[in-house]
Amino acid sequence: MEPTAGAVAPIAGRERTIRVWIAINAAILALWLLVPLAIGIFEDDRDASESENRSLAQWPSLPVALAEAPNWLTPFADYLRDQIGLREAFTNAHAWALYSIGVSANPDVVIGSDGFLFQRTLSKPGDYLEESFGRLRLAQDEVNAVVGRIAKNADRAALIGVPYLVAIVPNKSIVYKKYLPQRYRERISDDRMLGQVAKEAEHRNIPFLDLSQAILRVSKNQLSWLRHDTHWNSVGAWAAYQAIADKIEARYGHSVIPLDSEDVKFQGRATIDGDLAKLLGLRGLSEMTFDAAFAREVEVQSEEFLKDGNRTIGSLIRTTYVDGPRIMILADSFFWRLRPLLIASSSEILWLRQLDFTVPWDKVEEFRPSAIISLYIESNFILKRWMDD
Fold first, then answer.
1. pLDDT in tens, 33-67
2. Class of residue 170 by CB neighbours under 10 A (exposed 0-12, middle 13-18, buried 19+)
3. Does the global pTM surpass 0.90?
4. Low-confidence ranges of the chain (pLDDT < 50)
5. Which of 376, 371, 302 is nearest to 333 (CA)?
6. Contact by Cβ (8 Å): 238, 197
7. For the chain, domain boundaries
8. What letter would DSSP give residue 354?
9. How far is CA 384 from each of CA 9, 118, 313, rounded to the nearest angstrom?
């Protein structure tokens, strides 16, 4: 039976609608592909990829002889791949797609619940989570070496009448283990490298402080760590500051970093692109963080950055709080959230980047601090840098 004209008309109309719909979507797809491509051609070359956390290939020098042309093609292809095209957009989209279903695009990052990210094996030869599980141990000679170094530093500081304290920042996986995937959460142990060192330090009565309990207490009611980063926020840094101040006062009989709870308030703000988010290739992943605000108005008068080549290895900060103490702090990047707290309570701060328990005594003699604080990260026990001497 032949279809009637009335039946053909609706079918033809639907076919036209489908063709228009396909054309519109094809145009949208073409624009989505071509606009970034055009931008990639005409914009300045980028030095690095935020999504992939790596340097990008730059325009190679042109060959000066015909025989060099074949060797030039490979770096030129790398340049086209990195600078012209949609690699950044595709990489970011792929990372977001995986993240949305709870799959990590990087084996060194674990995706937990409530947006928490945790670090794994960026530092060889150990795995940070394995250390939190208590599976990586220090030999007794290694424990003796680290405690012995701290004891020597304390004895030397005592000779010149300067309070000295080693404070250990716990692993993020210890503070917020409830947000780890269950297969990891069940394996977190209280018997870790930090416990080995703390036990020997207590036995020898050396100035040593495990910050775990202080940070765990504040973490019950407030967020003390950045969800998408390896570092604490200002709340965690404030808990550490108070615990350090209390420990120095209890051991040495006087306070050297005098800030009270009434002096500090916290203001929330949005932040993006934590270091763990970058490792996953996620751009624009935002979260709430907190900045410390102070009742006491103290400003930075000057800051001199200390360099080793192009690398910043410390800074000397002078403030308007001329009656405050002079603090030497030996720390890695965890210093930055302590920095505003120290500025508000010190006349001068000498920060030196350190990943072991070495004290630069020449700097001590030159700076003449009111106290020396060595801030060490629990996960760095894996590196055993104090065993190099």
1. 555 555 555 556 667 765 555 677 787 888 777 77
2. buried
3. no
4. 1-8
5. 376
6. no
7. 5-91, 109-388
8. -
9. 80, 22, 20
